[in-house]
Amino acid sequence: MAETSLLEAGASAASTAAALENLQVEASCSVCLEYLKEPVIIECGHNFCKACITRWWEDLERDFPCPVCRKTSRYRSLRPNRQLGSMVEIAKQLQAVKRKIRDESLCPQHHEALSLFCYEDQEAVCLICAISHTHRAHNVAPLDDATQEYKEKLQKCLAPLEQKLQEITRCKSSEEQKPAELKRLVESRRQQILTEFEELHRRLDEEQQTLLSRLEEEEQDILQRLRENAAHLGDRRRDLAHLAAEVEGKCLQSGFEMLKVRPLLLRGPSGRAQPSFAQAVLSARSAHSSALLL
Ligand SMILES: [Zn+2]
Ligand SMILES: [Zn+2]
Ligand SMILES: [Zn+2]
Ligand SMILES: [Zn+2]
Predict the structure, then answer these.
(1) Which of 69, 72, 148, 245 is spaced 20 to 30 A from 165 at the CA atom?
(2) Residue 85, domain CATH
(3) Closest by alpha carbon to 83, among 16, 26, 21?
(4) How much distance in Å is there from the Cα of 57 to the middle of ligand 1?
(5) Distances (CA, A) of 243 to 30, 230, 260, 268, 269
(6) Which residues lie below 8 Å from residue 2, measured CB to CB, with a gap of 6+?
(7) Alpha-carbon gap, residue 176 to 41, rounded angstroms
(8) pLDDT per residue over 161-213, tens digit each?
(9) Residue 145 placed within a domain
(10) What is the number of domains present in the chain?
(11) CA–CA separation, 13 vs 112, rounded Å?
């Protein structure tokens, strides 16, 4: 390790320590050299503990001198400086923090600041450690540099992690939208099914109406034919009765007259027959079987 880096390592710590020391001086009383207690400001602008300046001026009646600049004031004027009081409290807290940090960052072996970092051993070391036998051949750098380097490395790791995180967040939100999407799809399909079945019911009703009215028409049709057949058979019966009476009359006549029979009577039972009632129904059924058999 170069000597300049070792010096640089201590430089920033030293300037912080100097600033804190200045603050401690400003927050101290020039009489007791302790932190100011109940600070009061006198005419010249200097501050002291209320008790210290009171004691300093104890035996004086007039012309009160400042313990720092010797400027005298005619009156015993002590104004409390509350703002400075708060600053004193802050300086005390800073000193406590500094002490704590110093205790934590001291080498347990040499009681020097752990201002360096050994890469081989991956640990903070002090200046004496760095030149000791243990770490002499090791790669050692100022702690701040090593911290910065590790910080950069960690930040490099952070970028892909953040990318992954965003990706997962996107996936999650898209997954969270899926139930709603599914609900929409199911509702749309449900409406489609309802509409389709309404249409089917409507068509079935239509078909039912058509078949029922066709059946009624066929019934009326057959009834009409049956009535016609019955009327026809009535006519036929009347004709035959008339013919039978005629034949009976012929039988009672003399031989010559009896021989003058109408050709109709000689044709006998083989003559053209009228369709019977049953035949009429059957023929009607065969003609309309499609509707009646349903
Ligand atoms: Zn004092
Ligand atoms: Zn003064
Ligand atoms: Zn050490
Ligand atoms: Zn080492």
Answers:
(1) 148
(2) 3.30.40.10
(3) 26
(4) 13
(5) 169, 20, 15, 12, 13
(6) none
(7) 67
(8) 999 999 999 999 999 999 999 999 999 999 999 999 999 999 999 999 999 99
(9) no
(10) 2
(11) 13
Residue type at position 101: I
Q: Distance between CA 273 and CA 169 in Å, rounded?
A: 98
Percent of the chain with pLDDT over 90: 62
Ligand 2 centroid–CA 8 distance in Å is 39
Q: What is the pLDDT of residue 128?
A: 94
> What is the number of the ligand closest to the CA of 129?
3
Whether residue 223 is contained in a domain is answered as yes
Question: How far, in Å, is the centroid of ligand 2 from the Cα of 41?
Answer: 9
- Ligand nearest to the backbone CA of 40: 1
Centre of ligand 3 to C-alpha 140, Å, is: 13
Q: What is d(CA 75, CA 62) in angstroms, rounded to the nearest whole number?
A: 7
Domain that holds residue 68: 13-105
Residue 226 in tokens: 């049956």
Boundary-marking domain end, from 78, 105, 132: 105
pLDDT tens-digit readout, 50-96:
999 999 999 998 889 999 999 998 888 899 999 999 999 999 999 89
Distance 93 CA to ligand 1 centre (A): 19
